[in-house]
Design a protein that fits this description.
Distance between the termini: 24 Å
Helix content: 25-40%
Number of helices: 17
Largest sheet: 14 strands, parallel
Number of strands: 18
């Protein structure tokens, strides 16, 4: 018996389960790449027997081609009881003319005939349509299927080429339908792209941990009152992603209380303002508390809309922020200035509040910033970075930022004060206290002093080399450099060589210290490089799927036969 067959079945099963859990989800998988469960079931007869009797391997059912329909039935048979994740990816009319094996109108209802009998086991549903007739079929299925009690993730995509944001903004489609009978008691994650719901008849929009809305024309967006209710009913929300979507911007004209952006995003009135009796206060006076929110992604939204939106939210624990703000050539300086220093409370009529502490940045503990597009002034960009001293990761396409935006990274700022430090007492405002304060203010560090990882494009190798030298000189090395291949030149290659040399020298020094201290060298130990350069290319379009990816196993039989061959391919 070969050594591999000596592994206990229980251990082999655990390895298989770990492997399938680490496999990319179908949306992220490279076309032509074989799934983990298929690979391990083709190694040999023994592995195939174990794989086919491990239901956990067959929980993801992906439909994209005609061959996937038969495959889906086999997956569901191999996993008869565990929750299932369903991916249905239908094509556009143009794509169907090019590839007749893709799922299109005639196959749409047939796909759901396969999975609907198992709706009580649905854990995730990811549905993509790129055709209006397929969308009508989706409305029909989801409005009649009834509840999915175990569904935790709902992703509905309607992919269309609107050509301009104006066409999308003014698009009027049929009224939305109630999905799943309005009952999804386990829902935690919702992703809607180009798809809207009857918001007032979707009570399952609560207790959410992630919300992703994209490509909603203003007339179908959620009224602000319902948006506010959804967020208030989701205190554990950790992720919010908006791409040309969010609460409605314009007034509906049907509410006794103003409900447009000009009201719900208005700044709170000063405390000494005289208001008419019964006059409603704007929502910014009582922002929604999202204390668990960690990640925010903002794409293609207007500057004044964003300011209004975030006046109504309090999310001090955000760690990750993505900005892809390329909207009709707008200047986003006001929004960036708002993030850097939101206006503080007004001074009270009796003078109280004067001399209050300067306002905190909107996201005071930001650790990761990604910018794919942003038009703003260099001073506002500098202000945002200056109030983000905890930032450890920066991703930026500097071709989409203002000229000289990269140069800000070569500047210094006063060393950040320890957040736990005791503020000076009034008696320390003069004398020695003042001297100590002056000494503290005199010490400077590079902007973003904790920065450890960068991913940049649109920057020359010479600029990167200058940044590396500047950071090393101040003792604030960047540990990981992800550099676009287009920036490869003598300067960036010299940066790579310097990084390798510094890492090698560090390793030698650590080994010498270990020997001097009498510590045994550990051959299995892996030390993080002091600096490392990684080159990347912009993502290319996926190629055509291989024949194996479409047919995969063939799946003609349900169980092993004695005559089944061994080795890769398994005879199928």
């Amino acid at each position: 018996m070969s050594p591999i067959h000596s592994l206990p079945v229980e251990l082999l099963t655990t390895i298989f389960q770990l492997g399938v859990d680490s496999d990319p989800i179908p949306d992220d998988q490279t076309r032509g790449e074989h799934t983990f469960e298929v690979l391990v079931s083709h190694v040999c007869r023994h592995w195939r027997h174990v794989a086919l009797h491990t239901p956990h391997l067959w929980t993801t059912v992906h439909f994209r081609t005609l061959a996937h329909m038969a495959r889906g039935e086999v997956y569901l048979a191999r996993n008869a009881h565990l929750p299932i994740d369903i991916y249905v990816d239908t094509c556009s009319e143009d794509d169907y003319h090019l590839r007749k094996d893709l799922l299109f109108r005639d196959q749409f209802l047939a796909v759901f005939n396969v999975v609907l009998p198992h709706i009580h086991r649905w854990r995730e549903l990811h549905l993509i349509v790129a055709d209006l007739e397929c969308k009508s079929f989706a409305r029909q299925v989801l409005s009649k299927c009834g509840t999915a009690p175990a569904l935790r993730t709902l992703q509905l995509w309607h992919v269309m080429n609107w050509q301009t944001s104006e066409r999308l903004f003014n698009h009027i489609g049929p009224p939305p339908v109630v999905v799943f009978g309005g009952a999804l008691p386990s829902l935690k994650h919702i992703i809607l792209q180009g798809v809207n719901l009857p918001w007032s008849r979707s009570p399952f929009l609560c207790n959410l941990t992630s919300v992703e809305f994209a490509l909603h024309s203003d007339n179908v967006r959620m009224p602000f009152a319902l948006w506010r209710d959804m967020l208030r009913a989701s205190p554990a929300l950790t992720r919010l992603s908006l791409l040309f979507a969010g609460p409605r911007a314009s007034s509906s004209g049907t509410s006794p209380v103003p409900d447009g952006i000009e009201w719900w995003g208005a700044a709170p009135p000063p405390p000494d303002a005289v208001l008419p009796p019964g006059a409603p206060l704007p929502p910014s006076t009582d922002p929604v508390q999202l204390l668990q929110l960690r990640e925010v992604q903002l794409n293609n939204l207007e500057a004044d809309y964003l300011i209004a939106l975030f006046r109504t939210l309090h999310a001090p624990a955000v760690r990750s922020l993505h900005l892809g703000l390329d909207f009709d050539d707008q200047d986003f300086t006001p929004f960036i200035e708002y993030l850097a220093a939101p206006p503080g409370p007004h001074k009270l009529a009796n003078g109280a509040g004067a001399g209050a502490a300067r306002p905190q940045p909107k996201f005071p503990v930001l650790e990761s910033l990604s910018v794919s597009a942003l038009k703003c002034t260099v001073p506002s960009w500098r202000a945002l970075l200056a109030v983000s001293p905890k930032l450890t990761r920066l991703e930026a396409d500097f071709t989409q930022l203002s000229e000289h935006a990269f140069d800000v990274l070569l500047e210094t700022v006063p060393e950040p004060q320890d957040a736990d430090a005791r503020p000076p007492s009034p008696s320390e405002s003069d004398g020695k206290g003042k001297a100590r304060a002056d000494a503290t203010e005199a010490k400077t560090v590079p902007i973003l002093p904790k920065l450890e990882s960068v991913r940049v494009s649109g920057v020359e190798g010479k600029q990167l080399s200058e940044l590396a030298t500047f950071r090393r000189m101040h003792g604030c090395r960047i540990r990981r450099w992800e550099i676009e291949e287009g920036a490869r030149d003598e300067h960036s290659e010299a940066l790579e060589q310097d990084a390798e040399a510094a890492s090698t020298e560090l390793l030698k020094r650590r080994d010498a210290e270990d020997r001097e201290a009498g510590r045994a060298c550990e051959p299995w130990r892996w030390d993080e490089p002091l600096e490392k350069v990684v080159w990347f290319r912009e993502e290319e379009e996926d190629g055509e799927e291989s024949e194996f990816d479409d047919g995969e196993e063939g799946y003609a039989e349900e169980e092993d036969a004695d005559g089944e061959g061994e080795g890769e391919g398994g005879g199928e």
